[in-house]
TrEMBL record:
The keyword Nucleus applies. Transmembrane segments: none annotated. Belongs to the ETS family. GO terms for molecular function: DNA-binding transcription factor activity, RNA polymerase II-specific; sequence-specific DNA binding. It is found in: Nucleus. SUPFAM superfamilies: Winged helix' DNA-binding domain (SSF46785). Residues 553-582 have a biased composition (Basic and acidic residues). This is ETS domain-containing protein. One of its GO terms (cellular component) is nucleus. Residues 180-190 have a biased composition (Polar residues). Keywords: DNA-binding, Nucleus, Transcription, Transcription regulation. It comes from Silurus meridionalis. Residues 461-474 have a biased composition (Basic residues). The lineage of its organism: Eukaryota, Metazoa, Chordata, Craniata, Vertebrata.
Length: 611
DNA sequence: CCCGGAAAAT
DNA sequence: ATTTTCCGGG
């Protein structure tokens, strides 16, 4: 209700403000790290290095300082920060690169950025048949939608369930569905998708569905490889980007370099020419209609988003179908009406989907990490478990069962989106400064193995597949017909997916940039950067993050936000650092405004805001 | 340095 | 639920 309101766009509230849990939603450390990583200004203190998601904290004290500033914890120091980082190990968000000081690695395998909330596969198919070019196809079939009772599904474990917050089904879907898919399959898919697109259909996305659902049809590793081989091959495939040493260390240590290549073939070239136009305007008509091209773009968008963080691409997930929501179109807020299928019905996803579930659930599940310790113990006791077995613990699915997701969408990635015309997104209006960006990320599970690294093999799991699969609940709208309790399972099991093949992309940070123009906005404003001098310099921001854009939209439509923003910001009072330029006051000029907002947002982001 | 347990704080 | 503190142990 509240929010967006009327405009239509609806985004899930969660987007705006997730649950309420009190302490919860502050910026998370990993988000912060990612933010720092994406800004060149901070390259002296922290930067991507190595392959994949590896990064090195070059100036631990500074990073700690920045973090402390962000959290208003002046006493922060690297020791503490690192402890926090260590907590991510079990969550599988991060890994430590052994042997290298201050070097950690994001698990993008599990971490997926979801920028576009709506994506998910399901939607497209149905709704937009025509559009769905190749991809979606499966659409019909696969569609998964959010089960009405997702919660259970998600967290089988029970525990928590996430909150009742308010997440829309979408979110969920995203989270799990996509995400999950992503995790493993993701990578694969992505490429595949591209490939297919490029090539032409390929088998269509069939696989996709398969992948997700349960079937493992062709997505086996082999298959994947093959695919990659083809496509990738031509691309130049991977590449070893930099010599860095991820592996090196690996050699020494544990790591296992993934078979896949850390490097990933990304290549800029690959992506298409898509250029994000800053202007973007999705607005009105745009919309969805996408064709193969669009698809590609879409994919790219994802890619970009990843890039924005300078992450390695692996993370992308691709959804076979994309959905595009069209904000404007919807007039009703999802939330309330969600149900209104009208739109949905044929169209998309948007979210609401089902009312039934408007249940919120939170998205983050925490996985059950067993600690290595436990693992160890287990091993010790039992001896070696099966390798795969490790999952033993996992219980049935072991492997990947959990996932957590987060979501966010915002900023950076955004750029990409719009271009496409996909309107997606969640915007967060304001409010949080801190939230600044949130991207959604989800992490998916992976499983054990992790320690070493990436996933690689893990294919089997799906074998059993279970049958049914899931969700397709699309139809359910109000009737709820289908709703057998089946879906749930799938997710877990399923989502594990096969192993991901290498994706693309070299991680090298700089390289990406070239690719996308966007990027970079910088904040500056170092709060008080104390002694160091690296205060970042501001640079002109060109791109506009989605968020802003949306915002912009909002403003136009409703400017309430502005007020809020300001409000929020207003508190700042001290000119201190940030003062800078943000005056968002104006309401009118959209462009300008947006730019400003953009900027402001950017700045806000990292540093701080005073406490 | 890095690792995590534990307790407290948010 | 996550992060901050504190801390003993490699």
């Amino acid at each position: 209700m509240k929010t967006p309101g009327e405009t239509g766009f609806a985004f899930p509230e969660w987007a705006y403000k997730p649950e309420s849990s009190p302490g919860s939603r502050q910026i998370q450390l990993w988000h912060f790290i990612l933010e720092l990583l994406r800004k060149e200004e901070y390259h002296d203190v922290i930067a991507w290095q190595g392959d994949y998601g590896e990064f090195v904290i070059k100036d631990p004290d500074e990073v700690a300082r920045l973090w402390g500033a962000r959290k208003c914890k002046p006493q922060m120091n690297y020791d503490k920060l690192s402890r926090a980082l260590r907590y991510y190990y079990n969550k599988r968000i991060l890994h430590k690169t052994k042997g290298k000081r201050f070097t950690y690695k994001f698990n993008f395998n599990k971490l997926v950025l979801v920028n576009y909330p709506f994506i998910d596969m399901g939607s497209a198919g149905v709704g937009v048949p025509q559009s769905a070019p190749p991809v979606p196809t499966g659409a019909v079939s696969h569609f998964r939608f959010p089960p009405s009772t997702p919660s259970e599904v998600l967290s089988p474990s029970s525990e928590e369930l996430r909150s009742p917050g308010s997440f829309s089904s979408m979110a969920r879907r995203l989270a799990r569905g996509s995400v999950s898919d992503c995790s493993d399959g993701t990578s694969a898919n992505s490429e595949i998708d591209e490939g297919s697109l490029g090539v032409g259909t390929a088998e269509e996305r069939v696989p996709e569905r398969g992948f997700r659902s349960a079937v493992p049809p062709r997505l086996t590793h082999e298959a994947l490889y093959r695919m990659y081989g083809n496509h990738v091959g031509h691309r130049g495939h991977r590449a070893h980007p930099e010599p860095l040493s991820p592996f090196a260390s690996a050699g020494s240590g544990l790591l296992a370099p993934p078979p896949l290549s850390p490097a990933l073939p990304v290549t800029a070239g690959t992506h298409l020419p898509y250029t994000p136009s800053p202007t973007l305007s999705p607005m009105p008509g745009s919309i969805f209609s996408f064709s193969a091209e669009d698809m590609q773009r879409y994919l790219q968008a994802h890619t970009q988003s990843v890039y924005n963080y300078h992450l390695s691409p692996r993370a992308l997930f691709h959804y076979p179908n994309v959905v595009v929501p069209q904000p404007q179109r919807l007039e009703k807020p999802l939330q309330s009406t969600a149900e209104r299928p009208s739109v949905l019905t044929h169209s998309y996803p948007l979210a609401p989907a089902d009312d039934a579930h408007h249940t919120p659930f939170k998205f983050k599940l925490q996985p059950p990490p067993l600690g290595r310790k436990q693992q160890r113990e287990a091993q010790g006791h039992q001896g070696s478990l099966g390798s795969s077995s490790s999952s033993a613990l996992g219980s049935s699915l072991s492997f990947g069962s959990d996932l957590s997701s987060g979501i966010v969408s915002n900023s950076s990635s955004s750029g990409s989106l719009n271009s496409t015309g996909l309107p997606k997104i969640k915007v967060e209006p304001i409010s949080d400064i801190e939230s600044e960006e949130e991207v959604e990320v989800t992490d998916i599970s992976d499983d054990e193995g992790d320690e070493r690294d990436e996933e690689f093999f893990s294919a089997h799991r799906r074998d059993h597949h279970h049958h049914h699969h899931h969700h397709h609940i699309f139809g359910r709208q109000s009737n709820g017909i289908s709703a057998p309790p089946q879906y749930d399972d799938s997710e877990e099991d399923v989502f594990k997916a096969p192993a991901p093949p290498p994706l693309f992309g070299a991680p090298s940070s700089s390289s990406f940039r070239g690719t996308m123009p966007t990027v970079k906005s910088e904040p500056d404003t170092p709060p008080a950067s104390s002694g160091h001098g690296h205060t970042p310099l501001p640079s002109p921001s060109q791109c506009i993050p989605l968020k802003l854009r949306f915002k912009r939209r909002w403003d136009q439509e409703q400017h309430t936000e502005e007020a809020e923003d300001k409000k929020v910001r207003g508190d700042k009072k001290n000119g201190e650092s940030a003062g800078i330029e943000r005056e968002e006051s104006e309401s009118s000029a959209p462009h300008k405004l947006s730019a400003e907002l953009h900027r402001a947002a950017a700045q806000l982001s990292l540093e701080n805001k005073d406490c």
